[in-house]
Specification:
With about 425 residues, the chain is an alpha/beta fold. The protein is built from 14 helices and 15 strands. It is globular and about 65 Å long.
Length: about 425
């Protein structure tokens, strides 16, 4: 590596495993192949009170690593987390049976948690004239904010630290960043970090976006999520998860691990200007800070994974931020979006979107944003890859944007190793 090469190996953090489930793939290779082939995971969906809508729905084997009783007792977010955690550990090649579990940390990003269980309990309770003696005794452990990370630690016997990071839709990056920080602080030797989402199972999210005029509609579900398109109509809500195995470089080298990439830089900041409307100035500052920490110039970035949700204001504000950073001088920087395939996976979005680009280090291809029939001129970025993959050749650096409500911004930069 050129960037960060002066850092001691003990402070350099690398990705050695990836475990995911998404609406269009249940492992990295399947996910990546479907992104390159334009395969969407958005389907018709019906949820109480809201009715017929659209969603990105995962179809993984929830009994691969859990018994039926454990799935019933736990949550969908916990189930997604358990699946992804097992998959990332298996992918990393770690000798898990002989691993000191007290030196493993679990750091999972979330947009929200607990809504699903509370909505379900209230809905069931009305059938008993709201007699709370019928309220589930599992409600409290299901709804505490640390639930998904806690379910992972219970299932895998991890006795090191576990907690969740509430960072709205910036949470997938935040889980990755937290894992790296804890490794650098020597609080753990292996960090499982990323994000999960069970958002499609709460009617409140759909209802809120609908009342805001930000819930996507389209007669063809696979074409509903269309960031940057002039006819975009809003967000497609999705579930999913992606967890990474993170290690210090010297530990990864010692055991001969396969290294997907190195975490070179990251940043998080706040807009402090609006509940919902993004602030392009603060987003640009977040990107610039990540570049400084990585020791990179903007023109050295090969692929930028955009956050773009498919809302007019969100897409336009982010494009303005990207112009401030990359301008017209970055002729070899290319921009794409993964939500156009799977919808917005909320707390898992940033982690999944990074994974969708990660193997570009190997194949040299930038997957496109799909469903763009007529580009919104305000979103016309030089290097925007639309509808068809683009062969770039040697991909060295990937920058991943992930932003959320109440003005929370996160950026990570991964380098080819």
């Amino acid at each position: 590596m050129i960037a960060n090469s002066s850092q001691p190996d003990r402070q350099r953090i690398v990705i050695t495993g990836v475990g995911l489930t998404s609406p269009n793939g249940n492992h990295l290779q399947e996910f990546r192949q479907n992104l390159l082939q334009g395969v969407s995971g958005v389907v018709p969906y019906n949820i109480r009170y809201v009715g017929d809508t659209l969603a990105g729905i995962c179809d993984y084997d929830e009994l691969r690593y859990q018994k039926r009783k454990e799935v019933r007792r736990g949550t969908r977010a916990g189930s997604v987390g358990v699946y992804c955690a097992h998959e990332t550990i298996r992918d990393s090649g770690i000798d898990w049976e002989n691993q000191d579990k007290s030196r493993v940390g679990v750091y999972i990003g979330l947009t929200e948690h607990g809504n699903v269980e509370t909505e379900n309990e209230v809905y069931q309770l009305k059938g008993y004239d709201y007699d709370t003696t019928y309220w589930s005794h599992h409600h409290n452990p299901r709804t505490v904010a640390n639930n998904p990370a806690g379910e992972v630690s219970l299932n895998l016997g991890i006795t090191g630290p576990h907690y969740t990071i509430g960072a709205a839709c910036a949470a997938g990056n935040a889980g990755l960043i937290q894992g790296a920080q804890m490794l650098r602080l020597e609080e753990c030797d292996i960090a499982i970090g990323g994000g999960v989402s069970e958002s499609i199972h709460t009617f409140g999210i759909f209802a809120s976006f609908k009342s805001q005029g930000a819930l996507a509609e389209h007669e063809d579900p696979v074409r509903a999520s269309r960031p940057f398109d002039i006819a975009r109509s809003g967000i497609v809500v999705a579930e999913g998860g992606c967890l990474y195995t993170l290690e210090r470089l010297d530990d990864a080298r010692r055991r001969g691990a396969n290294i997907y990439g190195e975490l070179l830089g990251y940043s998080m900041n706040s807009d402090a200007s609006d509940f919902v409307l993004p602030n392009p100035e603060r987003q640009a500052e977040c990107i610039q800070q990540a570049l400084r920490r990585a020791g990179l110039a903007a023109e050295e970035i090969d692929v930028v994974s955009t956050h773009a949700t498919g809302t007019a204001s969100g897409d336009q504000q982010e494009c303005e931020a990207l112009r401030q950073v990359f301008g017209e001088r970055c002729e070899n920087t290319f921009f794409n979006n993964t939500k156009s395939y799977i919808g917005h996976a909320m707390g898992a979005a940033g982690a999944l979107e990074l994974a969708g680009n990660l193997t570009a280090f190997e194949d040299g291809i930038c997957h496109p944003t799909i469903n763009v029939d007529e580009l919104d001129t305000v979103c016309d970025l030089a290097g925007l890859v639309l509808n068809e993959p683009r062969e770039l050749g040697n991909v060295r650096y990937i920058l991943n944007n992930s932003f959320g409500m109440l003005g929370i911004n996160s950026v990570v930069i991964i380098g080819k190793f």
